[in-house]
Design brief:
The chain has 264 residues and is an alpha/beta fold. Helix content is 28%, strand content 19%.
């Protein structure tokens, strides 16, 4: 049976904000519940989606994770099969599973928003939806961040035998100053697709994009990433400080239960 929230989303052509939150991370135990700035990552992504004006789909293999999401009347719950929640699972297969029975058109929009991106703000989500709406012939978009010159491909090295490091690109020797280095951009943290993308799941060679500040592109995959994110959240960066103030206010006003320590 299709939930009323899901049916309303399909009827109104609202974008799907899909939050994948599997429980089996090996790099950090229960990574999606890790605390950044006093707010667990899963709650961060849910509240940010709601603040942007959307009803997020929280997809997890964990009943406990889904019970956390179920505190929010705006959330749509998707119990992900265990086979789609392994280290090698393709997240788009979870989106396909969610769409059964089919109630959407191939032209409908889905934004993939992973909880491990703690500094995404509500505007980033709305901008992705707007970009997809403006590019009616594209079935894949992304957001990007400019890579600092010190991290540019031109300065990347491989470690070789005998404790030596070598530049990957010989182009490095044709550049005298960092100002001459071409600007390069890395993946931000949000994918946007039309559901037609799910047929082949091939990312195109060229794609429409939005630019976000590098600091908001941080994605947590290791303990070092988590430590860095925690330090940034305690700083005074304008957009990040504003976001975490909103998050903590929301948790307080809505009496949301935080994840229990016992799960760790």
């Amino acid at each position: 049976m299709i939930s009323s929230k899901l049916q309303s989303m399909a009827n109104n052509k609202s974008p799907i904000i899909f939050i994948p939150a599997r429980a089996g991370s090996k790099s950090i135990r229960h990574k999606n519940l890790s605390d950044v700035g006093g707010v667990p990552l899963l709650l961060n992504s849910i509240i940010t989606s709601i603040d942007a004006g959307y009803s997020p789909v929280v997809s997890s293999d964990s009943d406990y994770y889904l019970s956390i999401a179920n505190q929010f009347k705006e959330c749509i719950i998707h119990k992900r099969p265990k086979i789609q929640a392994t280290d090698v699972s393709v997240v788009w297969d979870a989106v396909i599973d969610f769409l059964q029975p089919k109630t959407f058109n191939e032209s409908d929009i889905c934004i993939l928003y992973e909880p491990t991106s703690p500094f995404v703000i509500d505007k980033d989500l709305r901008d992705m939806v707007t970009l997809m709406e403006k590019n009616s012939r594209s079935n894949y978009i992304t957001n990007l961040s400019e890579i600092p010159a010190t991290q540019s491909y031109i300065n990347q090295r491989l470690l070789t035998e005998y404790s030596r490091a070598s530049f990957i690109f010989k182009e490095r020797y044709n550049i005298d100053f960092k100002q001459q280095t071409r600007k390069t951009f890395c993946f931000g943290n949000l994918h946007g697709i039309r559901l037609s993308f799910l047929k082949k799941q091939i990312i195109p060679y060229e794609m429409p994009y939005n630019i976000i500040p590098f600091i908001r592109s941080l994605s947590i995959d290791s303990q070092e990433d988590l430590d860095l994110a925690s330090a940034i959240a305690l700083g005074n960066h304008p957009s990040i400080s504003k976001k975490f103030s909103m998050l903590t206010d929301y948790l307080y006003k809505n009496s949301i239960d935080m994840p229990r320590d016992s799960i760790y």
